[in-house]
């Protein structure tokens, strides 16, 4: 069923903003058909769309009136068609329309010349003069309609918070459903806009609960705002949150910076990783939070990284990695029982482990280098909405065994030593030997989770890019399994056929 959206465009700048906003809504396989009289603004909107997709305000966008099609290799490939001079509708096959649609987005002017040859799923955008401005009517079926409606709702959110005319540009997505944009400001700085749509319903996996609830995955913006507040109040560098829509899942915040902890070749910069390890040690010496007021009627209680959540995550290796390794053959009942029993025993050993706030993904994508700052302000922290209370060794394992980049053993040892030195200085009774065993267990748990998660992202979520991290993850797992405490799990992996941990 097709639904319509009507947008009044006061001037050409509003038409440009609509084109830019649509560049954030469209996905590969979408066809945007632009209809309107000469001078209605089709070319203006198309040019704005392409420049936003390229993140280049000066991108040359020649009219395809004579060539009939112009192709652009952008973040998403875009083919800009103009069918005004096309002799017959069947000519779209010769222009490579179907192939272009399979690779990316097709932007079509004068779509009426193609007759019935355009896909039924196309998005129809009609521009007409409306007094001194224009009226844009967008007709689309699901899921395109929902994507466009959400992008327009985000523009309304920005307008309500003083940024009605601020440009928006794609920044990044992640392994979750969240996506990020940046807003370039006239003073050269920028803001970050987080798009956090509600989690879709998922099937129950344990005791009638879906995976996010069992694993304590944040389902709305309240946990992010709560942890952000705690970090900032304790002297850590977290974003200043400027505006939140808790219902729709929109957050506007300042930008901590563009520099990370990796060099231009994607290799770890030792100084920045060492500073991150010291930042983590300081976090574990800060007062441990439990309940954090967020609004007048909402208090966030930080969940525990409990046995159920640990086992649920570790089970990803069993449920996803092992069948992938065996060309679809699942774990046997006896293998499953043995694996579960091993993790019960390992988690039992964590009962006396030191616990504190876990940011959960304390690694390179979420660490911002702020070299001009000093002390704790040198490391910017983001992506902490899934924070829990659990063994402090978990976040150190996230850093020393960074899932996104290879940390060589020498640097890993330096990071471990920097953290331990600071912890001993903070608490002279700090038990490094006990911490080492907890670290090995947490490193194994995290890498078992990741080894399954990469496969799940590829097979279920159609995000194969994360599989490039699999060899590194298995190497890290092998390192963790070398600790005597992990002997039972090491033996299980060998018997299950993944003992070599090489691929």
What does this structure look like?
- The chain is of the alpha+beta class and 503 residues long.
- The protein has two domains: 3-159, P-loop containing nucleotide triphosphate hydrolases (Rossmann fold, 3-Layer(aba) Sandwich), CATH 3.40.50.300; 258-496, Aminoglycoside phosphotransferase (APH), C-terminal lobe (Aminoglycoside 3'-phosphotransferase, Chain: A, domain 2), CATH 3.90.1200.10.
- Helices cover 39% and strands 19% of the residues.
- It contains 15 helices and 20 strands.
- The protein has helices spanning 12-25, 42-54, 91-94, 97-103, 144-160, 211-214, 222-233, 270-283, 307-325, 333-348, 393-400, 409-426, 432-459, 470-481, 487-496; strands at 3-9, 31-35, 69-72, 78-82, 105-109, 123-130, 133-140, 169-173, 179-184, 190-195, 204-206, 209-210, 241-245, 250-254, 291-295, 298-301, 355-358, 367-369, 379-381, 388-391.
- The strands form six sheets. A seven-stranded mixed β-sheet has the order 1-7-6-2-5-4-3, with helices on both faces.
- It is globular and about 80 Å long.
- The two termini are 46 Å apart.
């Amino acid at each position: 069923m097709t639904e319509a959206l009507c947008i009044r465009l006061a001037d050409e700048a509003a038409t440009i903003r609509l084109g830019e906003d649509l560049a954030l809504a469209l996905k590969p396989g979408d066809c945007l058909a632009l209809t309107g009289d000469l001078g209605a603004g089709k070319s203006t909107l198309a040019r704005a769309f392409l420049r936003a997709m390229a993140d280049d305000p000066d991108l040359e966008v020649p009219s395809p009136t004579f060539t009939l099609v112009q192709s652009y290799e952008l973040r998403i490939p875009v083919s800009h068609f103009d069918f005004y001079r096309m002799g017959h509708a069947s000519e779209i096959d010769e222009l490579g329309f179907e192939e272009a649609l399979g690779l990316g987005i097709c932007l079509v002017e004068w779509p009426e010349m193609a007759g019935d040859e355009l896909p039924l799923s196309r998005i129809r955008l009609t521009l007409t003069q409306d007094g001194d401005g224009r009226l844009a009517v967008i007709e689309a079926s699901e899921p395109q309609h929902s994507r466009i409606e959400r992008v327009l709702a985000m523009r309304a959110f920005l307008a309500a918070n003083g940024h009605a005319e601020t440009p928006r540009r794609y920044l990044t997505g992640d392994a979750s459903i969240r996506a990020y944009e940046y807003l370039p400001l006239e003073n050269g700085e920028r803001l970050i806009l987080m798009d956090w749509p509600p989690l879709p319903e998922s099937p129950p996996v344990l005791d009638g609960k879906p995976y996010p609830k069992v694993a304590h995955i944040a389902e709305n913006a309240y946990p992010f705002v709560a942890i952000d507040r705690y970090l900032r109040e304790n002297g850590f560098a977290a974003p200043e949150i400027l505006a939140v829509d808790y219902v729709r899942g929109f957050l506007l915040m300042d930008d901590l910076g563009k520099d990370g902890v990796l060099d231009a070749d994607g290799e770890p910069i030792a100084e920045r990783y060492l500073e991150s390890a010291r930042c983590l040690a300081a976090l574990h010496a800060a007062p441990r939070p439990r309940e954090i007021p967020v609004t007048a009627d909402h208090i966030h209680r930080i969940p525990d990284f409990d046995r159920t959540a640990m086992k649920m995550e570790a089970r990803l290796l069993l449920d996803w990695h092992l069948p992938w390794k065996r060309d679809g053959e699942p774990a046997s009942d006896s293998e499953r029982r043995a694996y579960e029993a091993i993790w019960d025993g390992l988690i039992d050993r964590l009962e006396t482990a030191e616990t504190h706030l876990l940011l959960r993904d304390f690694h390179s994508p979420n660490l911002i280098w702020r070299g001009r700052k000093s002390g704790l302000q040198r490391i910017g922290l983001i992506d902490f909405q899934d924070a829990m209370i659990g063994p402090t060794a978990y976040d150190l394992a996230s850093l020393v065994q960074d899932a996104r980049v290879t940390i060589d053993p020498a640097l890993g040892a330096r990071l471990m030593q920097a953290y331990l030195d600071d912890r001993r200085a903070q608490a002279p009774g700090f038990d490094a030997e006990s911490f080492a065993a907890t670290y090995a267990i947490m490193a194994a748990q995290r890498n078992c989770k990741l080894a399954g998660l990469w496969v799940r992202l590829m097979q279920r979520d159609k995000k194969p890019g994360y599989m490039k991290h699999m060899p590194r993850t298995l190497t890290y797992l092998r390192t963790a399994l070398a600790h005597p405490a992990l002997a039972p799990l090491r033996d299980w992996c060998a018997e299950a056929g993944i003992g070599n941990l090489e691929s």
